[in-house]
Design a protein that fits this description.
By secondary structure, the protein is α/β, with parallel strands linked by helices. It has one domain: TIM Barrel (Alpha-Beta Barrel), CATH 3.20.20. About 40% of the residues lie in helices and about 10% in strands. Strands 1, 2, 3, 4, 5, 6 and 7 form a seven-stranded parallel sheet that branches. α8 links the parallel β5 and β6. α8 packs parallel to α11. The longest helix is centred in the middle third of the chain and has 17 residues. It is globular. The relative contact order is 0.19.
């Protein structure tokens, strides 16, 4: 556990230092149609807090249309995307450039499939331009952007992190950041993040105490494992990442060995039983829109 003091965000939310708060976040919206279909249902009646969209992906325009048509239920951010990871023949490029000299693109003309390749090849200036372009495209498409976060964590690499934070603050939206760094993070990444936590909190940036996933290795018994994961949450503000998707031929083609788990997450977080479990455990749900309000009150 970290030696950091209690998260000041809890008191700002009107809660105690010992309370458990979770933001249930749906990643990858617009990566394929199945992700948008699941998000539409979950935003209307499921157990989620927010989602974020992948601007370079083919189903981003439909995601933006959904956000414009349903502003009352949408809490949508930009899932800053610097990688195109699937090996099933499905890929996407950058929003800001088609220039190989940027280092953002591989021999396919798509974004690199791994974070390591992006970190080796993509210049900080090109990454900043891409982050800016993705946020501005989302805003221009009519999305009321509530936050930005990172696909595959690539923006947390030293040299990219500053642009990630600065672009977020330029648009007065919070960037996803954590106070306690997972032990498997690159030491250089962990050191840079931890070294800036106090200064960022003093500026009013919301920070999460921990980030977690429901075990993502198999689709069976997902409801009970999700309930167990929620029951095990520590005091503080937790970011729970899920990747729910409807069962479609497109999803099965993109993830032939992993589509079942995404479908199971969709089905699980549509269950009213899960909402009842949160109430019984005394766990509070919060969305990014509320955190954006707190940030803008400080800026």
């Amino acid at each position: 556990m970290s030696d950091l003091p209690p998260n000041p965000l809890l008191r700002a939310l009107g809660l105690a230092d010992t309370d458990r708060i979770v933001l249930i976040h749906t990643d990858d919206i617009g990566m394929c149609h199945a992700s948008l279909a699941a998000y539409a249902d979950l935003a209307a009646s499921g157990v989620i807090s927010a989602g974020s969209t992948m601007v370079p992906c083919p189903w981003f325009p439909a995601t933006a249309q959904f956000c414009r048509e349903h502003p009352d239920i949408v809490d949508m951010g930009v899932h800053i995307t610097l990688n195109s990871e699937w090996d099933s023949g499905y890929a996407w490029g950058a929003v800001s450039t088609r220039d190989p000299a940027s280092g953002l693109l591989d021999e396919r003309g798509a974004m690199h499939s791994t974070t390591a390749a992006t970190q080796v090849h993509a210049t900080p200036a090109a990454v900043r331009a891409e982050i800016t372009a993705q946020v501005e495209r989302a805003l221009a498409a009519g999305i009321d952007v509530t936050h930005i976060d990172s696909h595959m964590g690539t923006v947390f690499f030293p040299g990219y992190l500053e642009s990630y934070i600065e672009v977020a603050l330029q648009h007065r939206v919070p960037p996803f950041l954590v106070r306690q760094i997972p032990p498997d993070f690159d030491p250089a990444v962990a050191g840079e993040l931890l070294g800036r936590i106090q200064a960022l909190e003093a500026r009013g940036l919301p920070m999460f105490d921990q980030v977690t996933f429901v075990p993502f290795d198999r689709p069976d018994n997902h409801l009970e494992r999700t309930k167990a994961s929620l029951s095990a949450l520590a005091p503080g503000l937790t970011y729970l990442i899920i990747h729910p998707s409807a069962d479609t031929p497109e999803l099965r083609a993109i993830l032939p060995d992993g589509w079942q788990v995404r479908v199971a997450e969709y089905q699980t977080f549509m269950r009213e039983e899960l909402r009842d479990h949160l109430r019984a455990e005394g766990i509070h749900l919060v969305g990014w829109r509320k955190l954006r309000e707190l940030l803008r009150a400080k800026l």
